[in-house]
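Good morning C.,

I know you're traveling, so I'll keep this short. The sequence:
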Amino acid sequence: MTLTRLILLVIASVLFMALVAGVAHVTGSQLALLAVLAVAVVILLALGRWVLRGLQEQLGADPVIVNEVIRGIATGYFDLKVRLPPQDRSSVLYNIKGMADQLSKTVNDVRAAANQIALSASELSATSEELSTGVTRQSSGVDETTTAVEEMT
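The tokens, ready to paste straight into the viewer:
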């Protein structure tokens, strides 16, 4: 319900109270009190809307949306599809999006480094196996040479 509709509802309520006052013989001071009360309700509704709008401006979106974004990041989902106004450079949601982007970059960098380490370990293992095979061949060659020298003597 928009603020305008609420104000119209309060005004209609005041008019209804005035109609009832005419039928029920409500005094003028009581009717004035009801009118002041109705105006106070309208002012409080407007003030509440102003506070809510300020809060949403600081958060960058409705609190429910901000909560969903934070929950997504907490579960490891960093590819946020958050629409922010172009001039927004200071809201909580803007900073959360920046944090998620940086976390995503860091995770991708760690994955790339882990893949490089796995590749290097595989190459090291292959080199180690080639070296082991070479040492075995060399040892076999030394044994053959030793046997041949012993036969000559």
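Safe travels,
E.
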